[in-house]
Amino acid sequence: MRAILVNEFGSLENAELGTIDKPFVRPGELLIEIHATAANFVDILLIGGMHQSEPRLPYIPGKGPAGIVRAVGEGVVNFVVGDRVLAMCEPGGGFAEFVATPATMCHRIPDKLSFTEAASMALIYDTAWFALLERGRFRPGDCVLVLGATGGVGQAAIQLVKALGGVALAAVSDFSKVDMVTDAGAVFVIDITHDNLRESLREQVFEITNGKGADIVVDALGDKFFEAAIRAVAWCGRYVVIGFAAGSIPSLKVNYLLVRNIEVSGLQIGDYRKREPEKMQDCFDQIFKLYGVGKIGPPPFKTMPLEEVGKALGSIRDRTTRGRIVLLQEH
After folding, report:
1. Are residues 194 and 67 in the same domain?
2. pLDDT tens sequence across 251-280
3. For 77-106, how does the pLDDT look when each residue is reduced to its tens digit (9 = 90+)?
4. Cα-flanking dihedrals φ and ψ of residue 218, to 5°?
5. CA nearest 123: which of 91, 147, 77?
6. CA–CA separation, 44 and 40 (whole Å)
């Protein structure tokens, strides 16, 4: 079958279109005929060997492919051939014609949700859901500061905050993309381009919240933004670290946590898929329910053929794309 193969970790050029044996279904697995898979920042990390988990080579990148069940492994009772599913496979495998993955990592797609739309929502909505409701213990009325708001997880988080009765503050550095966060449901935009970010970010958040601060921060950036945003958290607030897209991994003097009764937690979404599949199923049930009643929807996205994976990931790396990129596999 056709697949994007990584035979050696390194640059995006190391991910090349090639051929590999079609996978076979094992007990407890589904064989999925893939139609669409989104390109994600995590793919760049995995291809480069920079992720905390290092897959075995040759490696097929691509998380969250959407497609059709073509074979059902022994012991699987809740799926049948022909089901339309989203396969949250770990550590990848979605940039190919087929993937075999545990049935516990697969979720039926609502009938009116297309494969491309489902793929565009994969990885970002479940990450945002776990960041908000599992790690951040979101409650209706909470004020949530989203760092990396124009990214996929950021936009999903904003939509979820609005849908669940909260107030989303979107931290933005590229003002040509402000419409993306306001369209997603952000009530306020926080400017993070100031030279004195450490003071200016807190001042903006405190002004909006009448000196209280943000109940939850969802941080996909890290770097200098962490140090600034931690100072904008409300008393007994929750700070959720989901990535370091801005560069360096920050450190923290924990006396500030003590003084403000702040919690800082991390989210590695792949662990939940492996360790707590029931909780992941509940996550997708709620996401698809909110989609069904029109409270959330796919983020802005465009499609590209699978063989243009390098171009797609390069535009994510260089931050030159607006919205998501979904790679299509022809059958």
Report:
1. no
2. 988 888 998 999 999 999 989 998 999 999
3. 999 999 999 999 888 899 999 999 999 999
4. -110, 115
5. 91
6. 7
Quote the pTM value: 0.94
Q: Say whether both 249 and 131 belong to one domain.
A: yes
Place of tokens 């601060």: 213
Task: Say if residue 233 is exposed, middle or buried (CB neighbours under 10 Å; 0-12, 13-18, 19+).
Answer: buried
Q: What torsion, rounded to 10 degrees, do the Cα atoms 94, 96, 101, 103 define?
A: 80
Is 186:331 a contact under the CB 8 Å cutoff? Answer: no
Query: Do both 79 and 207 map to the same domain?
Result: no
Q: 238: which 2 tokens?
A: 């929750």
pLDDT digits (tens, 9 = 90+) for 136-169: 999 999 999 999 999 999 999 999 999 999 999 9
**Same domain as 24, residue 116:** yes
Structural domain including 47 reads 2-122+300-328
- Kindly state whether residues 10 and 104 are assigned to the same domain: yes
- Could you tell me which of 201, 231, 213 has the C-alpha nearest to residue 143? 213
Q: Return d(Cα 262, Cα 256) in angstroms, integer.
A: 8
How many domains does the chain divide into?
2
What's the CATH number where 171 sits? 3.40.50.720
Residue 287 covered by a domain: no
Specify whether 93 is located in the same domain as 136: no
Residues 142 and 262 in one domain: yes
Q: 71 falls in which pLDDT band (50, 70, 90)? A: very high
Which residue, among 244, 241, 239, 249, has the nearest Cα to 266 in the 3D structure? 241
- Give dist(CA 316, CA 215) in Å, integer: 30
